[in-house]
Amino acid sequence: MRRIGIVDVGAGGAAALAGAVDRVGGSAATSVELVASPAALDGCAALLIPALESFQQLSARLDDDLREAMAQHVERGSLLMGIGVGMHVLFDESAEAPGARGLGLLAGRCEALASSTEPMTRDRTHVPHVGWNRLVIELGGMASGAVPLPQGAWVYFAHACHAVPKDLACVTATVEYGKGRVAAVVARDNVVGMQFRPERSGAVGLRILHAVLSRWS
């Protein structure tokens, strides 16, 4: 039986993500499970890290044994996908929580979003970025074909920080916010991060989850 694991970070986000994955990937031949230990995640075809309130909280919940098991999971070629802050923890560190460790699977760090004001209209871009926004697919990056994404899809965001990869070629999709764009999806081989919340993005979010899980697991 194919097993899809959701890292149990002790918050409602894990259960919500598990429910969404079960709707698109669950079957008689597939089980969707909350996992919280190295032994529990062993043998999972795919592993998802759900959103949590802060980088500090998520980093603290990932002990050394779990980190090592996740690294081995990636080395085996299995999918590891982070959602929201779960995407942030794929990187080395975050300005949100100086000193807290990421997994270091993607080189780079996370920075705070900057608020801005449009000089002509005086419209202000507020932080955090909460609500629906459109994905812009970055066709030039090496990861452009790694994650099946619909151009211009409206998806739901809720974040105050954004990922800044050292290698921008891993950015699969961006979102316009304020005076520029920030990474919305990153991918390198079997490591994938989504800044938006697919489990809260309606039918399009479920289609994206299904496409990624079908491709990698």
Radius of gyration: 16 Å
Q: How far apart are the first and last residues' alpha carbons, in Å?
A: 12 Å
Count helical runs: 6
Number of domains: 1
Remind me, CATH topology? Rossmann fold
Average pLDDT, rounded to a whole number, is 88
Measured as a percent range, the helix fraction is: 25-40%
Overall 3D form: globular
Can you describe this structure?
By secondary structure, the chain is α/β, with parallel strands linked by helices. The chain is built from six helices and 14 strands. The chain has helices at residues 12-25, 38-41, 55-61, 64-75, 85-88, 202-216, and strands at 2-7, 30-35, 46-49, 79-83, 93-94, 108-112, 116-117, 124-125, 129-137, 154-159, 161-165, 171-177, 180-188, 191-194. Helix 1 crosses helix 6.
